[in-house]
Amino acid sequence: MNIKEAIKIIKDEKLQGYNMNEERYNRENEVVLRCENDKWIVYATDERASKVTNSQDIYFDEEEALDNFIDRLRALNRLRGYKVKTVTSI
Question: Which InterPro entries match (predicted)?
Answer without folding.
Answer: Imm59
